[in-house]
């Protein structure tokens, strides 16, 4: 019973800790887990005690049955002893009486024979009862031994559970110490928050003022970029399929979509740099089936990028030459053929394009 009272006390302590400490979520989970384990231990111990009481009741009932059997056998033995005394008395009287006639002697002999048979039967019955009593005694002893072994096992389990409860008490104490430490840390943090609240507000106001200043500067920069930055870009394509090229021939991208700054010379297929700066150059060429031409992008006649197309199948294929260059005013960029067979073709429409754009000046 002391074990149960201790467990109940621990559960009440755990519940009170769970209510008092609101910020220790991890500890709440651990406490809930330990509460569940302690309740399971209590239930197991109660079941063990019920089993022990049941076995004690059965043992008491078996003892009572054995005592009744022994009492019954004792009464039967006493009855047999009285019958034996009676037979002995009759035998003595029959030996002493010499005046008894033949009829009485015959009757006496018959009675003696019956008494002899009764004595034999009584002896057999006593022997049978003794054997049955011995068998029952052995059965009861075996049952008692089994119950004793079972009680030892249950006692060991109870001891193990008590040890587990003791260890749980130690863990609860350690957990309570951690909770107290956490509460102290939380209190310290709250104090720091209250003490620095005024300074934090002032700092936030300063930061907001700086952010507004930076935003104004960024807006001014964006306005200047929109108004002052030059716009140089063009995009053109080959309007229809091209064939019968010779090596080194300029590829004319005759269909112009856009030409900001008028840097692209449509009739020549050349982009002439109007403003010094950094440019991105994009050239894509696609071929007809079974064509395998080479082409390259040049700056003032010097190759800066080269691509080879090997469409030696029944499918169409394309390739790209890309570059980012720092160009000077008057530099010219164009695309021209390299290795080229008379049967090779360049696909037009949207499949072959030439684009240049100013990134920075």
UniProtKB/TrEMBL annotation:
Pfam families: C1q (PF00386). GO terms for cellular component: extracellular region. The keyword Acetylation does not apply. It is found in: Secreted. InterPro entries: C1q_dom, Cerebellin_Synaptic_Org, Tumour_necrosis_fac-like_dom. Residues 227-361 form the C1q domain. The keyword Secreted applies. Residues 1-24 form the signal peptide. Its main location: secreted. Keywords: Secreted, Signal. This is C1q domain-containing protein.
């Amino acid at each position: 019973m002391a074990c149960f009272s201790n467990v109940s006390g621990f559960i009440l302590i755990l519940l009170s800790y769970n209510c008092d400490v609101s910020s220790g979520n991890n500890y709440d989970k651990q406490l809930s887990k330990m509460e569940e384990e302690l309740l399971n231990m209590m239930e197991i111990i109660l079941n063990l005690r019920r089993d022990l009481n049941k076995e004690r009741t059965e043992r008491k009932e078996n003892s009572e049955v054995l005592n009744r059997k022994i009492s019954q056998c004792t009464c039967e033995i006493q009855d047999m002893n009285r019958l034996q005394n009676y037979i002995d008395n009759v035998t003595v009287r029959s030996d002493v009486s010499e005046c008894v006639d033949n009829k009485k002697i015959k009757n006496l002999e018959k009675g003696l024979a019956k008494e002899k048979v009764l004595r034999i039967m009584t002896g057999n019955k006593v022997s049978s009862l003794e054997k049955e009593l011995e068998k029952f005694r052995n059965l009861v002893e075996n049952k008692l031994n089994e119950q004793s072994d079972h009680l030892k096992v249950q006692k060991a389990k109870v001891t193990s559970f008590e040890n587990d409860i003791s260890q749980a008490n130690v863990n609860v104490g350690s957990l309570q110490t951690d909770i107290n430490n956490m509460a102290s840390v939380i209190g310290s943090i709250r104090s720091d928050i209250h003490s620095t609240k005024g300074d934090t507000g002032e700092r936030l106001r300063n930061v907001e003022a700086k952010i507004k200043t930076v935003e104004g500067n960024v807006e001014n920069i964006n306005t200047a970029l929109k108004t002052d930055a030059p716009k140089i870009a063009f995009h053109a394509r080959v309007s229809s399929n091209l064939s019968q090229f010779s090596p080194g021939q300029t590829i004319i991208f005759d269909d112009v979509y856009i030409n900001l700054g008028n840097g692209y010379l449509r009739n020549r297929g050349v982009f002439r740099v109007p403003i010094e700066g950094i440019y991105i150059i994009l050239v894509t060429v696609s071929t007809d089936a079974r064509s395998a031409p080479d082409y390259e992008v040049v700056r003032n006649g010097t190759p800066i990028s080269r691509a080879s197309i090997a469409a030696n199948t029944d499918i169409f294929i394309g390739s790209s030459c890309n570059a980012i260059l720092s160009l000077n005013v008057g530099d010219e960029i164009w695309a021209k053929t390299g290795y080229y067979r008379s049967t090779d073709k360049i696909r037009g429409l949207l499949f072959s394009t030439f684009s240049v754009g100013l990134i920075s000046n």
